[in-house]
Amino acid sequence: MRSRAAAAVTSPAATPNTSRRCQHCGSSLLFIQRVFQTHHRKPPTATATSNSNPGNKTEMTMLPGRPMVAKCAYISFCACFGTLARLYTDDIGPASNVALQGSFLANSIGSFALGALASSPDRETIPDAMYAGLTVGFCGSYTTYSGWNLRIARAALGQVSGAPSGAIVTIVSMATSLAFFAACFSAGCDVMKQIASHGRRLNIRRMLGGGALAGGDSDAVRNTLGMLGAVYVLLAVLLGVDNNWSRRIDWLACIFAPFGALSRFFLSRQLNSRLRGGAFPLGTFTANVLGSLVMALSFYGTKNSSSLTSGWSNVAIKAFQTGFLGSLTTMSTFMSEVVGHRDRHTPSASYIYLAATAIAAQALVLIVGAMLK
């Protein structure tokens, strides 16, 4: 009986059913394993090769958001120095020199510098974080659209002594200034291309610190954030111990500057490609027009208030204007987009973008100035 029972258990008739059940169980286990792996997968990491030593092939792990942190830190760090450089460039020459008012000289130099950086043969060797700091941070904050636009509007309203007023004069002044800034950007491109044609390289990366601050790895992020923190501590100390009210405006403006530069950076990042496939950079347009409007409101809304034109209130308002709004708006990036669109898109797209920005910003400031003067 036992042998028959054993034979019945292991008989060929029972084997197919058992085999099917085993296959079904195996398939179910495999499916569960795949689902588990899908929902419990580790977050992806990127690797970066150390740039400080070309012969070192050691790979360093960095989180996906780390390059953006490094880029923002570099933009903030360079925006402080770009704003400070603009403030001291504006002090060149006598205060009565109408031609140098409205950051005209800073806009010219900054547009030239951005053109040189954009056409540099070292562009491919410059890490993205460093390049963003130089272009968006330094050049973007060294130049300003809102300050220049306010000066043009005040001249049109007859509020600038020694400057001609009137609609025709305003249009001619705007057109010649914008044409000159565009020429400065093109000149920067041509000069750098001419240098490259002679086989010379500036090695911008080495000049600005090499691999220690270059990439998105943790060391670069820590170093850049550390330097930014040190700059903020120094500015806070200077703001507290310096008894000169004019210099206090400069120190506080440098503290506000990174917030304006980062706001412009994220506006451009989110909006520039939304309209006409990037032919109309909506982010830069929004930053320049909105910044010009807020500049006019803050200037005309506070100039007749005695409580806001002295002491710390005056320091805070002027630092907000020159620091945050001065860095939120930019002339160099505006010129790079206007000139660049002639090559990437069509000349008509370039002129439409130029005219829309100039007319919208100037019209809003003239309306505010006429109502609140």
UniProtKB/TrEMBL annotation:
Membrane-topology annotation of the record: Multi-pass membrane protein
Residues spanning the membrane: 68-88, 100-117, 129-148, 168-192, 225-243, 249-267, 279-300, 351-372
UniProt name for this protein: Fluoride ion transporter CrcB
UniProt cross-references to InterPro entries, sorted A to Z: FluC (IPR003691)
Species of origin: Ectocarpus siliculosus (Brown alga)
GO CC terms in record: plasma membrane
Compartments, record wording: Cell membrane
Record key words, sorted: Cell membrane, Membrane, Transmembrane, Transmembrane helix
Function description: Fluoride channel required for the rapid expulsion of cytoplasmic fluoride.
Biased composition (Low complexity): 1-16
GO molecular function: fluoride transmembrane transporter activity
